Amino acid sequence: LAGGIILGVALWLRHDSQTTNILYLQLGDKQAPNTFYVGIYILIAVGAVMMFVGFLGCYGAIQESQCLLGTFFTCLVILFACEVAAGIWGFVNKDQIAKDVKQFYDQAFQQALMAESETNNGRAVVKTFHETLDCCGPDNAIAAVTPLWREDLCPKKDSILKNILESSSCHKKIDELFSGKLYLIGIAAIVVAVIMIFEMILSMVLCCGIRNSSVY
After folding, report:
1. Which of 35, 122, 142, 199 would staple 112 via disulfide (CB 3.0–4.6 Å)?
2. Over 119-169, what HEC string results?
3. What structural domains and CATH numbers belong to the chain?
4. Which of 112-121, 134-143, 148-157, 158-167 has the highest mean pLDDT?
């Protein structure tokens, strides 16, 4: 059940419209940074393997098989080690992910403002960011004035005044998007880790109990 929940959360994060709209963008020959998906794929793999390993442990407990329970315990140890490694990687890279996406957005924004933007898809990339995240401009100062002189790049509001007052920095929105998603991944990882620890303890207790009872 825990494996199924983790798999469901990971698949939802993988196919979330906001992240897919942004991370599938391409600026000329350059692809949007999709390091974020590494953590998602690890969660998907852990969830799927957990479901299989859970079935193995269940069957081993029903059959009172020390071999199956021992295999179950070994698989859990490997999964736990992978998850700890993924957690450390995520903690180290949590700021870098948003930073890379912001740099990609800044490049597209610069190209969209220049004459050469007609020869590439910088304008389309910027408009996708603006419409998906409901923002305008790379930082607060530029976000405030961009609607006045590049209205075609920003989400349309009812009035120019509303455009200025309600336009948000895309840098801020990118930070919010990825910090929220990484927060969810972190919660899921902690829940899985706690469940795994209990599973390892209980499987060894059960395995030892079966071995002791078989003596008599």
Report:
1. 122
2. HCCHHHHHHHHHHHHCCCCCCHHHHHHHHHHCHHHCCCCCCHHHHHHHCCC
3. 1-214 (1.10.1450.10)
4. 134-143
